[in-house]
Structure formats: C-alpha cells, structure tokens
Amino acid sequence: MKQFYGIDLPNPLMLGTAQYPSPAILEQAFRDSGAGVATVSLRREGAGGGGQAFWQMVQSLGVHILPNTAGCHTVKEAVTTAHMAREVFDTKWIKLELIGHTDSLQPDVFGLVEAARILTDEGFEVFPYTTEDMIVADRLLDAGCRVLMPWGAPIGSGRGLNNAYALRAMRAAFPDVPLVIDAGIGLPSHAAHAMELGFDAVLLNSAVARAGDPVAMARAMMRAVEAGQLACAADPIEARDMAEASTPVIGKAFLS
Amino acid sequence: MKIVLNGGSRDVAATTLADLLDECGFSGRVATALNENFVPAASRADAALSDGDRIEVVAPMQGG
C-alpha cells in the first residue's frame, strides 16, 4: 500500500464521522471495522463545549485524523478553514473541499487548484476532493498535492463509480500517486470495485452512517476494500465477449 | 460593545479576543476568526475588538 504523505495506513478504509445515530455507534463502527483514518470537521462551538467530547472520543480511537473544509465555497473560506483545522486538530493533513455546485456538490476545480497551491506552499499536506478530470489532476499535482481524491459519484448519492472508465484511466496515468475514491460509495461492491481498479483507498461516510446497521456496514466495507485490494494484486483475468471453456476439451470421452 | 459571535449579536465587556473567549465561557480546543480572518491562539490576547466585529469560534465536529 502506498504511503500517504509518508504515513503507512493499516488498511485502505477511511471513514467519515458524520450522521451516525449516536456517538456510541460511531465509535463501534470504527472499532469493529478497524478503519485507520477518520474525517472530521469544524463547526461553531456553543459555550457548552459540545465539540470537546467529540474530540476526546475521536482521539481515543487511535486513528489518523483528516480534517475537512466541507461546506466551503470560496478559496478564502477554504484556506481560512484549513488554518483553523491545523490549529485545532494539530495536523498538516487537510481534506480540501471547495464546492462549486449546490445540487451535485461537484468541486469547483479552478478554486480547488488555487487553494491547494496556497496550502501546500504553507506546508499543508492536501487531500483534494476532485473530479475524475485528468487535467485537473495534473494541475493539482503541479500545485503540490501528493494524493488525489476523485469522486465516485456525488456526495451522499450512493451511486458507486459513475465513470469507471475515467477512473481507470486516471489510475493508469498516475501509477505512483496515492489515489482515493472519495464520495458516492453506497455498497460494499462499489468499494470493492474501486479497489479492483487499483485505487489505494476508499473514503466514505453516508453509506455506513445512514445504514440500518452502521456497525455491520462498516465491517462489510472493510471486507470489501480488502477483497478488492487482494483481487487487484492477484492480477484478474480480462473480460471477454464470448465464452471460453474452463474444462479441458482434451481427453473428453467420445459418447455421441 | 456590541459584536456578532457565531452569527448572533451580543453585548460584551471584553476588549480582546482572548478576553471574549473567557467571558463567553469557551474552553478546550477551539479556533477563532475575527472578521473572517484566522486568529491563531497565540495572537488572541493581542487581537483588539471593535464595535460590530464578527467573531467565529469553531471546535471539532463530526464530518465526512
């Protein structure tokens, strides 16, 4: 498994921490699945200090923390949020989200590249939430990103890999860059598909958090990414249009 | 003076960002912005407040 900014991850599953029915179920989903990365966010704090309890629980999981800039629509907003996240979470990692379209939550790739350049120049280790566009990927790498996170489908849609062809092409074009499918995963089969294509990890949230049984779904997702990773390494056969007998013809008894 | 804290208007006695956090009962891991500009923790005591300032105080929250 490739390193992510010099870090070895225990497995290819990154889990979000939003939308779980309860903190206890969130915690159990992480512990049962063994996911090694947790995405987190920043939101306005009340005087009661609700964020502090959440932070203590996430820390107790012993996972790598990946703060995001979710909900940001401008370069300045995203950069300022990254500054705040670095201070609060004490990490250089930032999942850079810069939303360009309200309905699809498609990233504003122009602003994304601009923000990525600013942040990498300031020493951040940027995980950009991007599209599957190859030229944007090139620009993000030029801007200093060492990881790319193309979407599989719109955030929360659960549609899987909408453009597997382009994702396969991206994998082939950037063989040495850690690539993570971020967003759109709904089923373990989607996650396995991403890993079968040679992706290095899968980041998902809603598919687990909003499942009827989030803990079971987290376990299923872990098995799926591990199965897909194993399958990719095992050099799968090529698909064919026509049948090819698997049982040898030589030695078949002549019975007609 | 009157400021806007996390989107809500309020009157405060504090004259710096550090004092404001104390006055309003914030503790633990928070990050601050003054008029949409990040203010690091080490600079809060020097960040003077003015009438009408907009302050954001954020903390770790669930995210995807």
TrEMBL record, chain A:
UniProt-listed Enzyme Commission number(s): 2.8.1.10
This protein's record includes keyword Cytoplasm: yes
Limits of the Thiazole synthase ThiG domain: 5-248
Main location as per UniProt: cytoplasm
The protein's annotated pathway: Cofactor biosynthesis; thiamine diphosphate biosynthesis
Alphabetical list of CDD domains matching this protein: ThiG
Residues annotated as catalytic: 95 (schiff-base intermediate with dxp)
Protein residues bound to 1-deoxy-D-xylulose 5-phosphate: 156, 183-184, 205-206
Domain of life: Bacteria
Pfam families: ThiG
InterPro entries the record matches: Aldolase_TIM (IPR013785), Thiazole_synthase_ThiG (IPR033983), ThiG (IPR008867)
Intracellular or extracellular location(s): Cytoplasm
GO MF annotation: an example: thiazole synthase activity
GO biological process, one term: thiamine diphosphate biosynthetic process
Gene3D superfamilies xrefs: Aldolase class I (3.20.20.70)
Keywords assigned by UniProt, alphabetized: Cytoplasm, Schiff base, Thiamine biosynthesis, Transferase
Any GO CC annotation of this UniProt entry: cytoplasm
Catalytic activity: [ThiS sulfur-carrier protein]-C-terminal-Gly-aminoethanethioate + 2-iminoacetate + 1-deoxy-D-xylulose 5-phosphate = [ThiS sulfur-carrier protein]-C-terminal Gly-Gly + 2-[(2R,5Z)-2-carboxy-4-methylthiazol-5(2H)-ylidene]ethyl phosphate + 2 H2O + H(+)
Described purpose of this protein according to its UniProt entry: Catalyzes the rearrangement of 1-deoxy-D-xylulose 5-phosphate (DXP) to produce the thiazole phosphate moiety of thiamine. Sulfur is provided by the thiocarboxylate moiety of the carrier protein ThiS. In vitro, sulfur can be provided by H(2)S.
Family: Belongs to the ThiG family.
Quaternary organization: Homotetramer. Forms heterodimers with either ThiH or ThiS.
Protein name in UniProt: Thiazole synthase
Automatic annotation (TrEMBL), chain B:
Pfam families, sorted: ThiS
CDD domains for this protein: Ubl_ThiS
Domain of life: Bacteria
InterPro entries hit by this protein: Beta-grasp_dom_sf, Mopterin_synth/thiamin_S_b, Thi_S, ThiS/MoaD-like
PANTHER family xref list: SULFUR CARRIER PROTEIN THIS
Name by which UniProt lists this protein: Sulfur carrier protein ThiS
